[in-house]
Amino acid sequence: MSLKKFAVAKARALPVIILADTSGSMSVDGKIAALNEAVQNMVSTFRQESARQAEIQVGLITFGGDKAEMHLPLAKASEIEAMQPLDAIGRTPMGHAFELATEVLEDKELITSRDYRPVLILLSDGIPTDSWQAGLERLTTSERGQKASRFAMAIGAEANIDVLEAFNNDLEAPVFKANEARDIHRFFRAVTMSVTARSQSRTPNELVPINFDELGNDDDDLGLDLEGQW
């Protein structure tokens, strides 16, 4: 009998791409520290997931200074040992981040037709300082950008809600508004739970609804120093 009959099917990838604002304003009130911890916790949780139906991949695009950059190229979460901490500096080139995200999504060798629908996560505490409209339109109208699950978080009162709402495409989970450090963790924990549930599901392409209110506000559970709030 052919050994092929006993071959274990390779898990399909479930890509998660984070677009993180690392402009100078993120350096105040503990925002960048909370973001660093939240991203690390997300990756750590994904790393512990067994690849049954779906194998979670993570990529991180940062936008701060003069341009956006691929801080963490898309890779299997199980193989990400450590991440360089994010630094906050400069302006908010969000439009360039949209361009980079589109390039990653449409790379047929990086994300194959066999892979599951990607998850995009955008977070920002300010107003884009470059020409973001064309980049956002290209992303949201691209073949894979349209199909991706897109979530957004507004950090603080200065975040441009209109841009984040244009990016977000989950009507059941509108733009999440983070008013203090604990909220960044609540947002990432909710998205982490949703992605993890998808990876364990028999139908990973189906979106798992997110209800931020159900997470509560248990400061002790988060283990955070919440003196820095905004």
Topology:
Layout: E1 12-21, H1 31-47, E2 54-64, E3 67-76, H2 94-105, E4 119-124, H3 132-141, H4 143-147, E5 149-155, H5 161-167, E6 176-178, H6 181-200, H7 219-222
Parallel strand pairs: 1-2, 1-4, 4-5, 5-6
Antiparallel strand pairs: 2-3
Helix pairs in contact: 1-6, 2-3
Organism: Thalassotalea marina
InterPro entries: VWF_A (IPR002035), vWFA_dom_sf (IPR036465)
Domain VWFA: 15-191
Element pattern in H and E: EHEEHEHHEHEHH
Mean pLDDT: 87
Which CATH architecture would you pick?
3-Layer(aba) Sandwich
CATH H-level homologous superfamily name: von Willebrand factor, type A domain
User: Roughly how many Å apart are the termini?
Assistant: 66 Å
Main sheet: strands, sense, barrel: 6 strands, mixed
Principal-axis shape equals globular
CATH class: Alpha Beta
Total of DSSP H or I helical runs spanning 4+ residues: 7
Low-confidence stretches: 3-7, 218-230
Organism: Thalassotalea marina
Pfam family, one: VWA_2
Domain VWFA: 15-191
InterPro entries: VWF_A (IPR002035), vWFA_dom_sf (IPR036465)
Describe the structure.
The structure is a single chain. The protein is an alpha/beta fold. The protein has one domain (11-220): 3-Layer(aba) Sandwich (Rossmann fold). Helices cover 33% and strands 20% of the residues. It is built from 7 helices and 6 strands. It has helices at residues 31-47, 94-105, 132-141, 143-147, 161-167, 181-200, 219-222; strands at 12-21, 54-64, 67-76, 119-124, 149-155, 176-178. Strands 3-2-1-4-5-6 form a 6-stranded mixed beta sheet, with helices on both faces. Helix 5 links the parallel strand 5 and strand 6. The longest helix is centred in the C-terminal third of the chain and has 20 residues, at 181-200. It is globular, with a radius of gyration of 17 Å. It starts with 11 loop residues before the first strand and ends in an 8-residue tail after the last helix.
